[in-house]
Inverse folding.
């Protein structure tokens, strides 16, 4: 039924990683999904199809957001290799790409990339792999309220996705679409994802307000994308409640 309705889905490889991360209590505590694979979770949140083909990707992007805690007790952030052990438990053929040491690939050439915000680097294990380069723009994806949903993978299995606040994710995608360092083939898709997601938030996710209060939180790099979208979409802040 899920496939017949053409609902957003992810690859079986990504789903396997998410299930193992969830079993190890890493998902949502230490790791979130920050790339295209987050789109199906936003569709569930919106209860609306955002766009066919916008969930297609050959790379699984995750971000390290902190260190694992059990029963309120935090172990040493530098002990062990939680991400690498988790990845190898899913597929022992994963190896680190020596040319891009933030990326791991398995024997089928499926790629997993680990990203991190500068403020969260200190919570990573010193010997954990892959080794992400701290990216200032990843700080934006720590803001707001994460979404948390179970979706269906293309192999019919289920997986839980924890992803950034859709507003910050959408604006981050629009910002990425203008970055020369970004692969040229990915930039049009980034822009389409960002615009479609903002439209969907405005129409189907009223609990994620796109108002002046939210706009005031935005850094200058993102504020212009938000202003352009509001102007071109005709979006206006919702009226105050009647009571």
């Amino acid at each position: 039924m899920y496939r017949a309705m053409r609902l957003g889905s992810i690859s079986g490889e990504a789903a396997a990683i998410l299930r193992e991360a969830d079993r190890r209590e890493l998902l949502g505590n230490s790791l979130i999904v920050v790339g295209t694979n987050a789109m199906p979770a936003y569709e569930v949140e919106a209860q609306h199809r955002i766009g066919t083909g916008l969930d297609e990707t050959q790379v699984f992007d995750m971000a390290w957001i902190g260190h694992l805690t059990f029963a309120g007790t935090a172990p040493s952030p530098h002990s062990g290799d939680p991400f690498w052990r988790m990845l190898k438990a899913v597929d022992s053929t994963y190896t680190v790409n020596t040319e891009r040491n933030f990326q791991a690939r398995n024997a089928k050439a499926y790629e997993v990339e680990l990203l991190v915000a500068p403020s969260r680097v200190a919570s990573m294990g010193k010997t954990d792999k892959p080794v992400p380069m701290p990216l200032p723009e990843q700080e934006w994806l720590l803001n707001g309220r994460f979404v948390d949903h179970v979706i269906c993978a293309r192999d019919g299995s289920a997986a839980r996705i924890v992803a950034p606040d859709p507003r910050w994710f959408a604006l981050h995608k629009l910002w990425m679409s203008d970055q020369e360092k970004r692969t040229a083939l990915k930039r049009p898709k980034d822009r389409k994802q960002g615009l479609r997601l903002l439209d969907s938030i405005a129409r189907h996710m009223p609990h994620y307000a796109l108002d002046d209060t939210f706009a005031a939180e935005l850094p200058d790099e993102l504020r212009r994308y938000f202003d352009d979208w509001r102007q071109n979409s005709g979006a206006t802040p919702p009226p105050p409640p009647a009571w």
